[in-house]
């Protein structure tokens, strides 16, 4: 009997192989379904999984739907992106014309590091660009340092609209409020390039849900593990790239809630995704995701991928056992051609699927002389775990070697010392405990690990960020993501005031996007005194606030599920 | 876009200042940071960023004689900045990158061998510490330093004045018109190292043209001739036309083209106090040039302000280059003459002023003119704090890297004798052969 009145959360994860759907209620998985991903038309597999999971569910009880989808990734990978009129105001500096995904139109006009307009955009140049780009549906406008004065990009966009009628113009400073013109440019380009495809997808999703009587708000997962309302996401589709690993990380958060400093492993068929955690939150990539080889400003978790999974090939190389990164088919236990990690798990008694005898035969192929197959199986798993342990070590070293800007941060080093390994994914039970033993820490392999991604999507909270920056000498402030630049009334603004104001604008942005504010946190804050001629003439204060990524509810999986 | 592998140590020390309104304050590299991040320079394949290591006190005491010791004169920031230079050098010497730039502060080129306090914003000499580290740990021999700061690199000059294996070339605004008031052509090195210190005092208003005339006609030919294992650039940026502390007329393009031609293995930031109008552009230009990337679009917004060359300056610079080229070509015979003239010992008495610490130092330096080694050095140094009335004194004996037996013994004897006579507060032997400091 399913009680009425319970919150039901529907999560769908379109993965590379399977599309998973779950319904979560009362912190438990109420229903789950799996369907092969349909690569030609993602909707087909999604709807099949949806219909499977909804059978017997009162859809009117569903209060929230969240999708983790490869639509944006696929659009890019399959080359279905649209041509973009990429309009850049690079000002002086590095010439990025040949470093971006598409040849840009370079126009004059720029602001400097203080947001002061040094050169005005030239309308006659924009007119020429519009004539040349007449047939292009989507534009992107990005200016160097425009996050310090978003008006310059908006002015150019307004001029473009006088001459042509693009379906959408991506404004660089709205995509990211952080410095990095090259990354904002790449982000803005991809945002416009996938905008149409994402729109088609969003419309199809809305229709499909309506037909099934689901009126609950629909969210999409972003690479930073947060969600955005589907209709808001239409204008920020680039944020919805690489959501699979983000969904997995959130699934781990919901299923295992790692506290303190930890390492999580998502051990799949051929790869293991590793994330580092501090205070129950995964670490973010320092600057942003890389799309098709181009660095972007899309915020994402910091993940390292190593070629070890259940299907990883096991063989002897010069007498030594070698595991992965190649795959030559499924495990021998289910009819594959060569020994795999999963075969080792079956022989070691950690997994039980397929033909046990075939798994034993696989291990026997690897045995030297009269060696016991169980011993071989254990050795295989140790070797596999060793490669993951090495990759973890590299991440911890990279973290410790991250450049800093302050003496204090050199003296107190920024290291992570994990005290827990959390493993999800098909091969987690066999390998995660060995990795933990090699690191000398505790291990947790939560149940339900195989649907972690869909669970992650279902329970992910919305996130958003704003960057508040005040320049009290120039007497203005900006909130780039809101396209806002305004006079600073209070010249004596402090870092504390800036934090309060940043939170206010974050709440405003959240309201615009149709999401609750949740728990806010300071991502970044700095304050500098400006001295000119031995006099302090003002301050520059920057405060970036975000709605903290997280999950609505922890999810427990009961025995037998 | 593929860069030639460039290592970058960027350490702006946002929590360190000499005083809140001092040119060496938290804000100095803020706009440079903004520009580098906004340009995406750290994302370019081939530009690799490194976190600076902390130098050890022993790394500093391999070079300096602190009174009473180095630890009591410095802050952690100094060890980070010296460590940043070492990190950059290690990246190059280990073959990880082709070149490296230590964009760090606090600077160091005014810090001399003996240190009583801070002068010209410098307490310890980060290039010298890096070079002596490389010699000790990495077996580097001959090193050339090209100091392109507007101020004479008097500290670096002092440290290597008697070392013929270290070529020090400094061009700077004439000492008659700018701190520290030294760096004239007759400062050419001790008798055994005569000619390996080359000073090029330039008139105020010197432009890119003047700087590149010197580079093409003097600096590059001399470097080719000296054939060092490593070229170090003390990359001060205060020759810029907008610098508030000096009066030169060099542009970001001028500096970038200099970096392009010089092809320094390691560049280390020194001064440069036009923090908004120059540093963001000069540093971007240097990084692009060192990485072999196109820097032609790096132009200051107010470039129209940059003064043009003056004919009188051009004539002076051409004459200076001829004169110093003559000195370089005749350096061996001039060195022999200087040795003969000096006799057994060369000595000088100096007054050294520490502007940031309000200290004046009286120093007597003696070096043995030895045919078998660089010669041992003794320094008798006394200082007075102008306001506090603090008095500090030290007697130091320095044993060179590869000493002859006589110099080694005589250096020790000199220190022991001074100790017995008891006229100083501190007595120290800096043994560069064994990398060891002994306090008597
Ligand atoms: Zn200087
Ligand atoms: Zn000797």
Task: Name the shape of chain A in a single word.
Answer: globular
- Compute the average pLDDT of chain B: 96
Total number of beta strands of chain B: 16
Low-pLDDT segments of chain B: none
Helical segment count of chain A: 15
- The residue ranges of chain A in which pLDDT falls below 50 over 5 or more consecutive positions are 1-5
Q: From the helix content, strand content and strand pairing of chain A, which structural class follows?
A: alpha/beta
Order of strands in the sheet with most strands of chain B: 2-1-4-10-9-6-7-8
How is this structure best described in words?
The complex is a heterodimer of chains A (561) and B (440). Chain A is built from 15 helices and 27 strands. By secondary structure, chain A is α/β, with parallel strands linked by helices. In chain A, a hairpin with a 2-residue loop joins β2 (18-25) and β3. Chain A starts with 7 loop residues before the first strand and ends in a 14-residue tail after the last strand. The relative contact order of chain A is 0.12. The model of chain A is unreliable at 1-5 (pLDDT under 50). Chain B is an alpha/beta fold and 440 residues long. Chain B has 11 helices and 16 strands. In chain B, the strands form 3 sheets. Chain B has an 8-stranded parallel β-sheet with strand order 2-1-4-10-9-6-7-8, with helices on both faces. Chain B has a 6-stranded mixed β-sheet with strand order 11-12-13-14-15-16, with helices on one face. A two-stranded parallel ribbon of chain B has the order 3-5. In chain B, α1 packs across α8 (279-290). Chain B is globular and about 65 Å long. The mean pLDDT of chain B is 96. Bound molecules: zinc ion (ZN) (2 copies). One zinc ion is lined by residues 370, 372-373, 375, 403-404, 406-407 of chain B.
């Amino acid at each position: 009997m399913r009680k009425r009145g319970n919150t039901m959360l529907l999560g769908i994860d379109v993965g590379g192989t399977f599309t998973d759907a779950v319904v979560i209620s009362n912190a438990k998985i109420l229903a789950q379904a799996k369907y092969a991903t349909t690569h030609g038309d993602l909707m087909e597999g999604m709807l099949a999984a949806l219909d499977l999971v909804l059978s017997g569910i009162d859809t009117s009880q569903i209060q929230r739907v969240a999708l983790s989808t490869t639509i944006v990734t696929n659009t890019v990978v399959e080359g279905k992106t649209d041509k973009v009129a990429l309009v850049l105001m690079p000002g002086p500096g590095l010439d990025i014309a040949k470093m971006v995904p598409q040849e840009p139109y370079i126009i004059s006009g720029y602001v400097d590091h203080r947001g002061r307009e040094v050169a005005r955009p030239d309308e006659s140049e924009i007119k020429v660009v519009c004539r040349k780009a007449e047939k292009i549906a989507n534009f992107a406008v990005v200016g160097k340092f425009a996050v310090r004065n978003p008006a310059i990009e908006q002015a150019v966009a307004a001029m473009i609209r006088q001459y042509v009628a693009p379906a959408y113009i991506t404004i660089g400073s709205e995509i990211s409020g952080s410095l990095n013109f090259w990354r904002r440019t790449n982000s803005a380009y991809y945002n416009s390039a996938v905008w149409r495809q994402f729109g088609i997808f969003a419309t199809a999703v809305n229709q499909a849900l309506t037909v099934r009587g689901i009126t609950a708000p629909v969210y999409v997962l972003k690479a930073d593990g947060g969600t955005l309302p589907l209709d808001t996401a239409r204008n920020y589709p680039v944020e919805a790239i690489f959501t699979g690993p983000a969904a997995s990380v959130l699934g781990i958060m919901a299923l295992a809630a790692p506290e303190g400093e930890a390492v999580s492993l998502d051990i799949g068929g051929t790869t293991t995704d590793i994330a580092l955690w501090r205070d129950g939150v995964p670490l973010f990539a320092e600057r942003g995701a890389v799309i098709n080889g181009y660095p972007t400003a899309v915020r994402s978790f910091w993940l390292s991928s190593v070629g070890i999974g259940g299907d990883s090939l096991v063989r002897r190389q010069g007498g030594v056992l070698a595991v992965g990164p190649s795959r030559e088919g499924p495990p021998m236990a289910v009819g594959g051609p060569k020994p795999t990690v999963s075969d080792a798990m079956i022989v070691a008694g950690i997994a039980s699927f397929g033909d046990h005898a075939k798994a034993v035969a696989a291990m026997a192929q690897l045995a030297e002389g009269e060696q016991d197959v169980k011993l071989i199986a254990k050795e295989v798993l140790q070797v596999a775990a060793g490669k993951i342990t090495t990759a973890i070590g590299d991440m911890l070293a990279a973290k410790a070697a991250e450049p800093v800007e302050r003496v204090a941060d050199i003296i107190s080093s920024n290291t992570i010392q994990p005290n827990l390994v959390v493993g999800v994914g098909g091969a987690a039970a066999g390998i995660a405990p060995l990795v933990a033993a090699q690191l000398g820490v505790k291990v947790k392999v939560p149940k339900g690990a195989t649907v972690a991604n869909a669970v992650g999507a279902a329970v992910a909270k919305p996130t958003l960020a704003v960057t508040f920056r005040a320049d009290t000498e120039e007497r203005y402030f900006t909130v780039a993501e809101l396209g806002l630049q305004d006079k600073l009334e209070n010249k004596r603004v402090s870092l504390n005031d800036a934090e309060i104001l940043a939170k206010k604008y974050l709440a405003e942005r959240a309201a615009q996007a149709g999401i609750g504010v949740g728990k806010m946190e300071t991502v970044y804050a700095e304050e500098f005194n400006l001295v000119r001629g031995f006099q302090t003439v003002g301050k520059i204060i920057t405060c970036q606030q975000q709605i903290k990524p997280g999950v609505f509810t922890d999810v427990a999986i009961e025995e037998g599920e | 876009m593929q860069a030639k592998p460039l290592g970058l140590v960027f350490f702006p020390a946002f929590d360190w200042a000499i005083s809140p309104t001092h040119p060496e304050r938290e804000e100095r590299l803020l706009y440079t940071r903004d520009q580098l991040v906004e340009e995406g320079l750290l994302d370019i394949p081939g530009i690799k960023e490194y976190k600076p290591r902390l130098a050890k006190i022993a790394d500093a005491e391999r070079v300096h004689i602190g009174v009473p010791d180095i630890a009591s004169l410095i802050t952690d920031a100094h060890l980070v900045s010296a460590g940043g230079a070492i990190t950059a050098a290690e990246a190059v010497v280990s073959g990880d990158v082709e070149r490296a730039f230590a964009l760090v502060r606090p600077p160091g080129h005014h810090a001399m061998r003996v240190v009583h306090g801070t002068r010209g914003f410098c307490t310890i000499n980060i290039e010298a510490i890096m070079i002596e580290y490389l010699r000790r740990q990495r077996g580097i021999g001959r090193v050339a330093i090209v100091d392109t700061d507007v101020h004479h690199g008097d500290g670096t000059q002092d440290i290597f004045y008697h070392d013929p294996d270290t070529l020090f070339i400094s061009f700077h605004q004439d000492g008659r018109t700018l701190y520290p008031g030294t760096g004239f052509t007759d400062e050419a090195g001790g008798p055994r190292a005569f000619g390996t210190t080359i000073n090029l005092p330039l008139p105020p208003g010197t432009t890119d043209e003047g700087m590149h005339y010197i580079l093409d006609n003097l600096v590059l030919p001399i470097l080719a001739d000296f054939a060092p294992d490593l070229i170090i650039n003390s990359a001060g940026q205060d020759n810029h036309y907008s610098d508030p502390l000096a009066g030169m007329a060099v542009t970001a393009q001028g500096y970038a083209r200099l970096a392009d031609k010089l092809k320094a293995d390691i560049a280390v930031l020194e001064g440069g106090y036009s923090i908004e109008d120059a540093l963001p552009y000069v540093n971007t230009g240097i990084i692009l040039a060192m990485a072999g990337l196109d820097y032609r679009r790096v132009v200051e917004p107010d470039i129209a302000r940059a003064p043009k060359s003056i004919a009188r300056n051009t004539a002076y610079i051409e004459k200076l280059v001829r004169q110093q080229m003559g000195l370089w070509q005749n350096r061996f015979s001039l060195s022999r003459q200087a040795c003969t003239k000096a006799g057994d010992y060369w000595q000088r008495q100096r007054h050294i002023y520490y502007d940031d610490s309000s200290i004046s130092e009286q120093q007597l330096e003696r070096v043995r003119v030895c045919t078998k080694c660089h010669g041992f050095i003794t320094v008798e140094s006394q200082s007075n704090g102008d306001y506090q009335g603090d008095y500090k004194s030290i007697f130091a004996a320095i044993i060179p890297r590869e000493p002859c037996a006589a110099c080694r013994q005589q250096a020790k004897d000199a220190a022991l004798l001074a100790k017995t006579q008891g006229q100083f507060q501190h007595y120290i032997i800096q043994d560069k052969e064994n990398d060891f400091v002994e306090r008597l």
